[in-house]
Design goal:
Elements lengths: L1 H20 L4 E10 L2 H5 L2 E2 L1 E11 L3 E9 L3 E2 L2 H5 L9 E10 H8 L2 H6 L3 E5 L2 E16 L2 E12 L2 E12 L8 E9 L5 H15 L4 E3 L2 E11 L2 E10 L5 H5 L2
Amino acid sequence: MPNEHRLEEQFLSQEAEKQVSNQLDEAEEIKIDVKTDLLKILQGQADGVAIAGQGLVIKEDIRVQEIKLQTDSIAINPFSALFGQIELNEPINTIARVILTEVDINRALTSEFVRSQMQNFELNVDGEIVSFEPEEIQVFLPGDGKLEFKGKVQLKEMGNTRPLAYTAIARPRTNSQPAMLEAFNCTEGEGISIELTTALMQKAKELMNIPSFKWQEIAFSIKNLEVQKGTLILMLEVQVKQIPPSSSLISP
């Protein structure tokens, strides 16, 4: 019986790997290990799923250096599972460890998908609406827990539009201290007023305190962020309501 169970696990794991691989543009390595047996499949259960991947690319330019996650027992559609498809009957809640390199982050920031998500945002500065139109941004990971940014925006205020280039150094929130802005310098343009600076810092605080982000059928929140030289390590709390079909993930 144990051998039969292991064959069932191997079949479902291999089919799940194919299913996920079809959702990716590239994958240096993807390993999925589904723990279950025939009886549990018929009952719509699996003891858990472990996923480990390296060099995963979706939407052409969104690359993840490494991802690891392990679920507890999950509820699945037994009929779909018999044909190698994992269809969730209940959402999965788990913790994922994701590693991004500096190169990956900046590659993603120039992708059409990310640029389409970088919408203009507006600030209320003493009753006047000021808007920012992002043009470019680069992220540097020098180590020592710091994030460095270099970017350019079009600043629209008082009926005028002007370019503004900047550099900034920040430290992400940790268990012992809040997010910190160490430096902000305007490198092109006339600079910004103290009132606008105050409104901008308040907006940044709001963005950093967003409880969760959603994409497709997946919601995630950042539980911990570790900055190393050239690498960003994220611990994410993830809720997966349903595994999106491949056509949904790769569509523009």
